[in-house]
Amino acid sequence: MVTLGVLALQGAFREHLTVLNSLGVEARKVTRPEHLEGLDGIILPGGESSAMVRLAAPTGLFVHLGERIRDGLPAFGTCAGLILLADRLTDDTLTGFDRPGGLDVTVARNAYGRQRESFVAPLEITGMTPDFDGTFIRAPQIVETGSAEVLARHDGAAVLVRQGNVWGGSFHPELGPDTRLHAEFVRRLGHDD
Question: For the whole model, what pTM was predicted?
């Protein structure tokens, strides 16, 4: 059986756990480095990236997670999780804090506006029909994709990317009834194509 971890420091981790359980995946919370043992992959949820880096700092969780990702652990970051996985940010808000990185993109935090400017938009995702409804809440924007493959765009901007087995999305796939994106991540575990 596949075992996925969900970073559970803060944010929408419960919703990701619920989706994974509905897919028959064994899912467990990750809050410390030792929780990374035995995982086939990890999801980094949306929430507040600045709170997450501060909560992870005392245990060195993101240093260990970054090493595991570089060693091939599949990872999927959504919203704040994308910020944590991005190799580059457009601001220095998180300077001085470890982030796992591993995704060759540049991200602008909160680029889609404030909480009241949240929206849901249909997204054409490569290989997925029909469209997937993406929920954007104070979402980051991918401003440069580097070597990452763009899987979906919204108004011309990349909102879902994949680089090998590391995925990043600007939106919250766990907040709607559609589980196809989680299912595809699980299906591709162990494939670097």
Answer: 0.95
CATH number of the structural domain spanning residue 114: 3.40.50.880
Binding-site positions for L-glutamine read 47-49, 109, 137-138
State yes or no: is 149 an active-site residue: no
Hey, what amino acid is at 131? D
Structural domain range at position 90: 3-187
Active site residue 174: yes
Based on the residue annotation, tell me whether 35 is a catalytic residue of this protein: no
Give the number of domains in the chain.
1
With CA atoms as reference, report the closest residue to 136 among 174, 171, 178.
171
Mean pLDDT in order along the chain per 10 residues (193 residues): 96 97 96 98 96 97 98 97 97 93 95 82 96 94 96 96 97 96 92 53
Q: Which residues are annotated as a binding site?
A: 47-49, 109, 137-138
* Contact between 60 and 32 (Cβ < 8 Å): no
Domain for residue 193, yes or no?
no
Q: Is residue 192 part of a domain?
A: no
